[in-house]
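Blackboard transcription, Thursday session:
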Amino acid sequence: MLELATAGESHGPGIVAILSGVPAGLALDIGAIDRALGRRQSGYGRGARQQIERDRVEVLGGVRKGRTTGAPVALMVRNADSRLDEVPEIHAPRPGHADLAGHQATGAPIRDVLERASARETAARVAAGAVAGQILSAFGIAVVSRVVRIGAAAAADAMPATPEGFAAADGSPVRCLDAAASAAMCAGIDAAREAGESLGGVFEVVGFGVPAGLGAYDVPARRLDARLAGALMSIPAIKGVEIGEGFAGAALPGSRFHDEIVHDHAAAPRAGGFARRTNRAGGVEGGVTNGMPVVCRAAMKPIPTLTRPLGSVDIRTLKPVPALKERSDTCAVPAASVVGEAVVASVLAEALLERLGTGGMEELAARFDAMIGRLGGSPEK
Amino acid sequence: MLELATAGESHGPGIVAILSGVPAGLALDIGAIDRALGRRQSGYGRGARQQIERDRVEVLGGVRKGRTTGAPVALMVRNADSRLDEVPEIHAPRPGHADLAGHQATGAPIRDVLERASARETAARVAAGAVAGQILSAFGIAVVSRVVRIGAAAAADAMPATPEGFAAADGSPVRCLDAAASAAMCAGIDAAREAGESLGGVFEVVGFGVPAGLGAYDVPARRLDARLAGALMSIPAIKGVEIGEGFAGAALPGSRFHDEIVHDHAAAPRAGGFARRTNRAGGVEGGVTNGMPVVCRAAMKPIPTLTRPLGSVDIRTLKPVPALKERSDTCAVPAASVVGEAVVASVLAEALLERLGTGGMEELAARFDAMIGRLGGSPEK
Amino acid sequence: MLELATAGESHGPGIVAILSGVPAGLALDIGAIDRALGRRQSGYGRGARQQIERDRVEVLGGVRKGRTTGAPVALMVRNADSRLDEVPEIHAPRPGHADLAGHQATGAPIRDVLERASARETAARVAAGAVAGQILSAFGIAVVSRVVRIGAAAAADAMPATPEGFAAADGSPVRCLDAAASAAMCAGIDAAREAGESLGGVFEVVGFGVPAGLGAYDVPARRLDARLAGALMSIPAIKGVEIGEGFAGAALPGSRFHDEIVHDHAAAPRAGGFARRTNRAGGVEGGVTNGMPVVCRAAMKPIPTLTRPLGSVDIRTLKPVPALKERSDTCAVPAASVVGEAVVASVLAEALLERLGTGGMEELAARFDAMIGRLGGSPEK
Amino acid sequence: MLELATAGESHGPGIVAILSGVPAGLALDIGAIDRALGRRQSGYGRGARQQIERDRVEVLGGVRKGRTTGAPVALMVRNADSRLDEVPEIHAPRPGHADLAGHQATGAPIRDVLERASARETAARVAAGAVAGQILSAFGIAVVSRVVRIGAAAAADAMPATPEGFAAADGSPVRCLDAAASAAMCAGIDAAREAGESLGGVFEVVGFGVPAGLGAYDVPARRLDARLAGALMSIPAIKGVEIGEGFAGAALPGSRFHDEIVHDHAAAPRAGGFARRTNRAGGVEGGVTNGMPVVCRAAMKPIPTLTRPLGSVDIRTLKPVPALKERSDTCAVPAASVVGEAVVASVLAEALLERLGTGGMEELAARFDAMIGRLGGSPEK
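(Written on the board underneath:)
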């Protein structure tokens, strides 16, 4: 039921989100939404525009006296630069963007396509994802992220075992927890900027505290892994998604892949005590959460805009021309990881609310506790 | 509008699919559906059950005198072994399957969970996907696949440039086009079976002839890449999905990633002549097809059932017990690649029909031709 | 989540339904489904075909050992007459049917249109609705119906206050509880048949025991009244839908319309004791149930096929011709009221499950009881 | 694909709408949206609030230089009175509103419920409906309305045969075309106000120029009549919906109901010349448009707020108290008819775009013309 609609252009009045299905009675921390928006704008390798904009959310609906009302939550993030009718038309579509394909899909001028296809739209998803994150948080679920690769530089450290272990990501200019890799990533970004290049990378999003039994195994589109993959792949510039071991797991023999089941109540309080010593599945088996951390990774392509413009064609003359350079980030992987948190939080909150049903937060909290109790896990049961 | 509902259990009467939104007037080749079902059952590394079942589709609705009527197409694939009420209960959930998490999600006995979560369900998706494939085929679009990795053995050959280049996959026991890799894969499977092991792998699905402009850039969930990723990840045992360069692309600099645009009518007849010399994007930019082949890859984990059972817990006693061994395939990657074709065909047909609207095949064919003509691409235009 | 897909033609192998979202653990009474199918086939005024068919449901999925598994429930009702490829083509579309408009919508031959647009499809909805009814029944909710008008003959009795009061409808040849009206309806049908005429009418469907708080007021499409209206209007030949006082209420002054609120625990055990002495709203206020019986009425047009064929045009020659007479019922209002029960039960079960969330029947029963407890209604609370 | 999300409260910053699926290239007349909003606010019998608010739409997304871009259109209508955090809590739920049932559904304070359940929300639907109306208008389709009953006063005139015939409704204080009835309605409203009463009524919405073949007969929820009924019933205070003859038709014999088919190209240019001399079906047969005007009527209950407050119960003390009087309209049927136009326009535009597919307005216009040409209707064809 948690459903999100977004609208808005890069140079329009702003970005708008309507999130319906938010239960009534959630004390909404607007500052936390703004902090998420701020994290989306930060990161080593961003260009000038991110500095001019300090995104702040305005709540247009669904909240009274700081609490959600159960009605759709409407959010707006205004654009600092909103001269939509004055921005120039574009005739040379940029490779790697929606420009040409989008124009061919809708017949709209290229300017219209890029205004909407811009990553600016992800501000709406981050704002809505922050609301979803606060729903999750009320149930003790935390969604965090880190960057594990930028260009050739990859983190070598293991995934932290707790959400707190991810906290340091906010302190790294590239949201990487491995200090050496972090330095290498920054150096790589400097070198790329110098060379007129851009870089992509890989980020990891992890949900901690997710109870067993979210998602579905019986209807393909309702599988949690399918929904996570769809949500992550819908982030601009994402070209790959993994859950758990992902592609590396395809090369392992079965005996080194699967997570054997043991009973240990303390180790799996949200899975009825059915614990795992490993988590190669990334917390999802058969489309359903198993109580282990939900671990996703996404691969981002390098930003398409380079100092040396890519070759394009003028759609009026059909003659070769260089593509427009619309912006100048060198690397946006840290920002994308914040968007990744948002979409994963949205999927998890949606799955949690499906499981719990509708009603106010107080009623849902009682259902959650009863659900956890029913998952099994005490010999007396 | 193309919407699929499936039902059925592994040991029930059969697997059922209702596919609505199929245009009227498509001459449906039932034999081709059966061949797709047969390809799903084949492949080196499958166990005994695949031999006893020779899947054949029965059409229960939506077809008269060999042509679709526009009404929902209902398909059934009967099970050879349909003693559902007699199969034993299970109390030791199998790691790597939905058994435990599914039981915790629905409260159903483990037997109920595994009956539905079984890969047997994919017979419905293959049958429906074969219908989608015939819709695509009427518009000159072909969806093909090959296996590129099984365990440690990976194909070294380049992706063929035409659908015909994939035809040999059906002749390989592992659906691999690289003869040396094919042999290595078979040897790997033999060794794994010998060792009581199982293997996963990676397959590639490619859509050829896809016109530019399918999908969307303005609504995240309608992006074609998001839908492809969701569909592929919904196949049992898939843990990773890539489009185009995917994860490898995350390590490349921008100048070696993006597909520059040139004008060459002959090279891009379904993209208005806006051609690319490379296809690192895998045919999707900004969530929309760009006229190049749509290239996806999916990573499958090794099958969870080993000769040496994995450790589990009896859900009644909470004592450690070995997990049940329900079946005995060693590797199902070739079969999964056939399922991959089906789900990719379903997503592409859905996106194509969204673009073309509703109406009979004849009307849609006229719209398709006009659409191709409008994509641009001749200097005279 | 309760979602229904149906397929099948009037002269095909049968009618198929896939109902997903049915909770696990419901003891499914197959006989009760068959009885609902039988009631759909009965009623004074039906033609010969209803006699040759004795519909029985086959369960193809979602049930093991008599209990739902949580997986989609697949049902099939076979057709006695299934020579689909042999039925003749039709060129003179029948007024009042989908024949012409459907042909113009899809390009399909008229025969294809009428095969699917046939009221035979409602067998699927009755079967699925019987499953929904059994879900409701497990929560003490009953959905019943009666016919209140056939042609000029209208029932004069008040709506019974309990579901038991509706039981006698099954004993009336026209499902009418008012004996005098019942006789007049039968006489009217006899006269109409004699005159080569057909008759429509009005039926009433009532949900008893529906707890307060189902539906939604914040999203228009999720309002319960909107969903009831859509579902009832989707039954073939229905041209009007009312809830509570409906059209008559439009003529009343406000002081005689609204249902004042009193507190009386015994009178409103499923609404927290917030009771009403009247029920002009028909149990729905602001799109949400208020604990009073949910009362809907639907108007059915007379069956379009008359002994004297209606004027039509041959779509090949464009010359006037009489329309085909495909069947010979005189009146199908009693049957439609059974379909009405099915669709109302489906909507109510869907709304109930949205409120309760997912999980097995046992977990949902506990949530239901807790929900009722939270509705308020005792001074101690 | 045309999908609407709305948000906003009666006393919040405003009402927000996101309408996705609007084709690119539509010249959007903002003034026309404002005029529709103004018409929603007018009408004899409205209270003070409608005077203080002069609704004007702000476009937040989806439009550049006066043309739709193909991206979601975001609209906002600000509230004049937006002190949401200062409005008082309410403890005595008003009969006839969502107050109590909504509170029981979501656990939200009654104030939160009524803020969202307020008819103020329909401003969003009117704004979005005006966009839908402009889409339709580009294809020569007009959606108009009139009031046919207020309380005991009913219009006696026949439905006009053209959209122009409805134009005078905007000149009537009650949107009624029959001058005598109009006067009687005003007098009735005066008397009701005097008596501390309120009145309901019936309005009619008609779509002219609708081509044959919109909607569907094969999937119940996609039938056009089902969607019209759901949309109209989702308007606050609507308790009944009819299409064509509706309830009156239930009393007619078949020979006086059905619309015989003749061939007359001039009479049915958008139905291939397959014309009808009557329109008892209201333009929809078997769930599909037949080229005749689409005729719907909806019954509105009297406004629940009276000068003499209705009896209620304090939800804290459970003691009897009078219900709050939140507003003071006597009759809102004229306003509801404007909302009715909006929702009918939205449904028709959605069905039209489903039929035509996606792409820019220019491409869709070409498809529309070709579609009309294919509907048949010339002897040469």
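Lecturer's comment: DSSP finds ten helices and 17 strands in chain B.
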